[in-house]
Every structure is written in C-alpha cells, then in structure tokens.
Design brief:
It contains two helices and no strands. It has about 130 residues and is mostly helical.
C-alpha cells in the first residue's frame, strides 16, 4: 500500500471540512434562532392548554367524586334500614352457641362432682380422726 494518497486524502478532508462548516454556520444560526422563538411560542401555548386541561380534569374529578359520594351515602342509608329491619324481625340472638352451652353443662357437672367429693371425703376424715 502506498501512504501518499492516504495522507493526501486526510489533508484534503481536514481542509475541506472546516471550510464547509463555516459556510453553513451563518444560515444555520439564523434558522435556528427563528426555530427557537417558534418553539418557545409553541411551548407557551402548550403550557396554557395543559393548565386548562388540568383544571377541567380537576373539575371533572370533583364532580365524579361528588356523584359517587352521594350514591354511596344513599346505599349506606339503605343498608342501615335493611339492617334495622332484619334485627327487628329476627328473634333475640341466643346467648350461647351449642358448643358453649355444652361446655357450660360439662363445667357444671364437674363442679357438682367436685363438691360431692369434698363433702364425701370430709366426713371420712372425721371418722378417721375419731378412730385414731
């Protein structure tokens, strides 16, 4: 390979590239300035639209929440009335469930057996004391 044409090409590119960039820099800066002002104006318009839309959204949310809140209050009142009617029509609730009732009966039997045992053994102790 020859190094001559490669060096010549690099030198030519290094000279042509900055010259080409300088020629297009002036019109580019003018068009960029106009684009910047146009974009700034569009940004202001977009921000105004965003604020208006956010206000509309807040109003819509508030209306929707108020409608939903009133509907929930009505449903709550209806359920309270249904609960009162159900409590009024049903007999008094049982004090103990079946399982609790059997437990109380078993405890009563055990207490009765304990008392019978105490009274029965108390008399025999007295007899033993007399025998000694």
């Amino acid at each position: 390979m020859r190094k001559g044409p490669l060096c010549l090409m690099l030198v030519t590119l290094s000279i042509v590239a900055p010259a080409h960039g300088e020629e297009s820099a002036t019109p580019l800066s003018l068009s960029a300035g106009s684009q910047i002002t146009e974009l700034q104006q569009r940004l202001k318009v977009s921000e105004q639209q965003r604020e208006e839309l956010s206000k509309q959204l807040q109003n819509a949310d508030a209306e929707r929440e108020s409608v939903q809140l009133s509907r929930l209050r009505q449903e709550n009142q209806r359920l309270k009335l249904q609960l009162k009617e159900a409590q009024a029509s049903s007999p008094l609730p049982r004090f103990l469930t079946d399982q609790q009732q059997w437990f109380v009966i078993g405890a009563g039997v055990a207490l009765l057996a304990l008392l019978c045992g105490i009274f029965a053994s108390g008399a025999s102790r007295k007899r033993r004391q007399w025998l000694n």
